Amino acid sequence: MSATKARVVLVLLSCLISAATGLVLSRGGGEQKSAGRAKPLIGLSMDTLKEERWQNDRDLFVKKAGELGAEVLVQAANSDDTRQIQDIEALISRKVDLLLIVPHNGAAMAKGVRLAHDAGIPVIAYDRLITGEPLDLYISFDPVRVGEQQAQYLVDIFKGKGKKKIVRILGAKTDNNAVLMKVGQDRVLSPYIKSGDFSIVHEDWAENWKPENAKKIAQAALTRVGAFDAVLAANDGTAGGAIQALTEEGLAGKVVVTGQDAELSACQRIAAGTQAMTIYKPLKALAGLAAETAVKMARGRPIVAKGELDNGAGKVPSILMEVYTVTKANIDSTVVKDGFHSREEVYRGLVAGK
Fold it and tell me: What number of other Cβ atoms are within 10 A of residue 71's Cβ?
């Protein structure tokens, strides 16, 4: 067994988590690095904190880890690969017991994983897969399922309504999740593209997931194609950028726009009718599970994972949580019911939530 595989045994987390995730035995166990500390010390290296979604992840993770008796050191790299490596080096120098990484560039962060492993520190990739280097664990929502559900929404609403033109705004090329989401979208859309029912009339990758880049892509599509029926936008930020471009042309609410993350602004647009759907990923559950798992690993305790994903360096034990399509029809029974956003926030500015 390799030194990396000898680091952590994925055996059993808890009855609750095993019921949700299943049992897949992998990895080997190592020494408990936190034995000399009163509390485990976890390093959290984040791509960015500019977006609402990542601020929520940080706050939820830090709060839950604290409740479990751990301390968390947080670094945010502002979408800069060089800076993120420096952040990881700084966390390693603090002798953290475990490193949780949200990579800006999954391939570039392979170096960070190597540095951590060389220091005997286990690594969890959070939400985005790190490629090209063996990992101890990957915890995320299933990005392929996200893409499938976005595309299936378009299939369902356009079924039997003639040929439809779609503009696709993909996520960041540097994010492996964006690639996997495209895989899911293609899996659903391919038969309809082959039949001629759907056509992708324009598509491009939105660098760093920035709304302003998505707006430029939508503007290019409007100039190049003219009329189209839908924007298959990878997340709520890119959806917002596309909707800005549509608004300037008087087309907001007339073109179907997808999204992902159930950000408050997106839920407000859904309530108002300018965005058609988003994907709700229960971040509290994900961040809570990540915190529980990270604390157990930091203490050298065994855990469990369901399934494996190939990251180019081998099979990575993976826990992938379910995602949910949110529309105007079910927004109250999903994000509002779960307390992700309040009804007052979602319907602010609208009369009686209508």
Answer: 16
**pLDDT tens profile 80-110:** 999 999 999 999 999 999 999 999 999 999 9
Three-class secondary structure of residue 222 per DSSP: helix
The whole-angstrom separation of Cα 293 and Cα 11 is 12
Alpha-carbon torsion (81, 82, 83, 87), positive or negative: positive
Three-state SS for 213? helix
Residues 6+ apart with CB under 8 A from 321: 20, 140, 141, 142, 281, 282, 285, 286, 289
Residues in the chain: 354
C-alpha separations of 90 from 48, 49, 159 in Å: 17, 18, 53
Strands (E), 247-307: 256-257, 277-280
Query: How many CA atoms, within 13 angstroms, populate the side-chain half-sphere of residue 212?
Result: 0
What is the distance between the terminal CA atoms of the chain, rounded to a whole angstrom?
60
pTM across the whole model: 0.76
Same fold, 15-135+282-321 and 143-281+325-353: yes
DSSP 305: B
- For domain 15-135+282-321, is the CATH number 2.40.50.100? no
Q: Could you say which DSSP state residue 322 is in?
A: -
Pick the closest to residue 290 from 140, 70, 91, 113 (CA basis): 140
Q: What's domain 143-281+325-353's architecture?
A: 3-Layer(aba) Sandwich (3.40)
Q: Tokens 């808890």 correspond to what residue?
A: 14
Whether residue 292 contacts residue 282, with contact meaning beta carbons closer than 8 Å, is answered with no
CA distance readout (Å), 58 to 120, 229, 246, 263: 24, 37, 32, 15
User: Tens digits of per-residue pLDDT, 15-71?
Assistant: 333 333 343 323 333 344 544 578 999 999 999 998 888 998 999 999 999 999 999
Spell out the alpha helix ranges (H) of 27-172.
Answer: 52-67, 81-93, 110-118, 143-158
Whole-angstrom distance, CA of residue 219 vs CA of residue 331: 29
Domain ranges of the chain: 15-135+282-321, 143-281+325-353
